[in-house]
Amino acid sequence: MENSEGVKIESTVVTEEPLISALDIALFVVIITVAYFWYFKRDKQSSSSEKKPYTIQPSSLSSIEQTSNSSFIKKLKSTGRSLVVFYGSQTGTAEEFAGRIAKEGARYKVKGMVADPEECDMADLVEMKEIQKSLAIFCIATYGEGDPTDNAMDFYEWLQNGDADLEGLNYAVFGLGNKTYEHYNEIAIYIDQRLEELGATRVHEIGLGDDDANIEDDFVSWKEKLWESVCSHYGIEETGEESNIRQYKLVDCSEVLPERIFSGEISRLKSYENQRFPFDVKNPYLSKIAVNRELHKSGDRSCMHIEFDIDGSKMRYDTGDHVAVYPKNSSELVDKIGELLNADLDAVFSLLNTDEESSKEHPFPCPCTYRTALTYYLDITSNPRTHIMKELIEYASDPKDQEKLKLMASSTPEGKKEFHEWILRDNRNIVHILEDLPSVKPDLDHLCELLPRLQCRYYSISSSPKVYPKSIHITAVLVNYTTSTNRVNKGVATNLLAQLIPTNDELPQPTIPIYIRRSQFRLPPKSQTPIIMIGPGTGLAPFRGFIQERDYARKEGREIGEMVLYFGCRKKDEDFIYENELQEYVANGTLTKLHLAFSRDQPEKKYVTHLLEQNADELWNIIGEKSGHLYVCGDARSMAKDVHSIIVKVVMEKGQMTNSQALNYVKKMEQQKRYSADVWS
Fold first, then answer.
1. What is the pTM of this model?
2. Can you give the residue ranges of the FAD-binding FR-type domain (predicted)?
3. Residue 456 is among the residues annotated as catalytic for this protein
4. Which listed residue (227, 313, 633, 635) is catalytic?
5. Quick check: is 633 catalytic?
C-alpha cells in the first residue's frame, strides 16, 4: 500500500505467541502513549485552526517559513530598514516606480524595500509605528472599471472591511491611471483617504499619474516633492550621493545543463512541454492557431480574424471575456541589440537580486540566454523612461552623448522638453537610442536589468462559447506606423500573429501562449432584455459574441429581446468587417437593427455618434421605457466620451430631466450594469 506521500509501505505478517512477553508490554505502552499524544495534539490543532483559519499557498515552504516571509515588519526590523514601498501593478509600471523610490531612499540615508501586498500580511501595518522614522509608500494602479489590480485586491478588501488602528503609520500614495477612463485613479484615491480615516498620517499629498498624457513626468514631479516632504517631516537631509547601485548581480551560467535553462516560459520551467491546468497569467496555455484570415477587402491596412484552438485544454470562457496573448519581440530587433553592443546573445546568464530579503529573486525567469531574455521577457519596443537615460550616462564615451542623456534624465523644464520631443514625440525605443547615440555601450546584463518586462496583450473575445466551445476568436488590426525619424515601428503582438498562418499539411501548426481574463462585460441575465451595442471598428469584437449567443438562444426556441447595433468604419467596400455575418443576423431576425456609418464614403465624415443623435427616440425607448442595456466598445479617448455625452443629452431631453438628474440616471445605469464599457486608449 502507499501512504499520503506516495511512499510504499510493506505489510508484514506476524505469528502470534501464546504468552505475553515483556517486549509486548513495552510496545503496548509505547503505542498507547503515541495514540494519546496524537489524539490531544490533533484536537489542539483543530481548535487552533477554528480560531485562526489559514490558506495553504502553492509553495514548497513550510507554514512557519510562509508566515515569516509574509511579515514585512520582521524583514524591516531584521535588516535595519524604515521604508517599505508597496505596489499594485497589472502591467509592471507601478512595480517599476516602487523600485525607483526604494532605491532613491539611499540619497536620504533611508534604507528601503519593495513589497508585493499579495505576498504580505498587510495587518502588520499597525506595527509600523514600532520602527523609528518609518514610512510606507503605495504605488497603486487602477485597473478595468475602477478595480484594484489582482495583486492589490486582498489589501483593498482588508481596508474596506477592517477597522485597524493605523495611528502612527506614516504614508504617501501615488496613483497610476488614465484620464480617458471614467474611474480615473479611483483605487489610489480610496486607499489614500481610507488610510487617513484609520488614523494614519499622510506625509505627502497623493500623486495622480495620467498614462494618457505623460505618467513619467507626473511621477518624477511628485517624487521630487515627496522627498522634500519626507526631509521636512523627519528632519533629515539629502546626502547628495547618487544611487546608481545595481539591484541584481550577474551570474555566469555557462555550465548549467540545457534542461535547466529557460527558453521563454513565463514561470515554470518546461511548462510548454508539460502543460498543466489551470491556465493563468503565470501559466498560459500554448494554443494552436486554427484560423487566421484577412477581414479587410482592400486598402493598405490589415485586420485579422484569428481563432485559437482550446480543445482539450479544459479552458472555459464567457461571452465578453478577454484573452491574453503573450507576444515575443522580432528577431531583427533582438539581433540589432546584439550587434550594437557586440554581445554574444547565446551566452547563458542569470541576474540574482543583491537584496537577500527580497521575495523577487530574479527580474525574469533565469537562467536563460540573452537572446531569450530580449525575445520573450523584456520590452524593447516601448519608450524608455527617464531613469534608464540616467543609468546609460556612465556608458557614453562621447561627451555630447553624455550631455544629451544627462539633460533628458534631469527634471528641469529643458530636460523634460528634450525627453518629450526626442523620446516620446519621435517614438524612440532602446534600439533607436543605441543607434542614435553610438558611443553608448551599456553592459548587456545591466540593460536587461533596466528594461521593463514584456507584457501580454489583451483582446476582446469575438465569439460565444455556446457556438464555439472549442475555440476563442479575436479581431485584431495590424499595427504598423512610420515615425518622424522615418523608422517603421511595428506592433509586437499583431505582427507576430500576422506570421502565424496555419497550414493544411502534416506540418506542426503555429502556436502562441494565451490565457483567459474574466470580464464584467456581460449580456443581461434574461435573453428578453433589449440591448444597444455601439462598436465602431474592432469595437465590434465582443458584440459578435453577443449576437452569436442571442442567435443560439433564438434557435433553441427562447424569446430574445431587441438587439440594435451601431457599427462604423472608413469605407463599406474596404473595411466593413463581418459584413455577411451581420447581414445574415438581420435577415433571420436576431439583429433587430443595424445602423452603419462609413466615415469616408461621402464628402462629410459620418460617425456612429452622428447616428446616435439622429436616433434619440430609439435610444430612449430601449434604455428608458424598456429598461434595456447599453454597451460601448472601442476608443476611450474620444468615441466613448462622445457617446456618454449623447446618452446624457438624450436622457435629459426625452426623459424630461435636468442635466443633474440625467447624469444621476446614467450613473445609476452604470451601477446597475445597464451601461457597460469595454474601452481602450
1. 0.86
2. 282-524
3. no
4. 633
5. yes
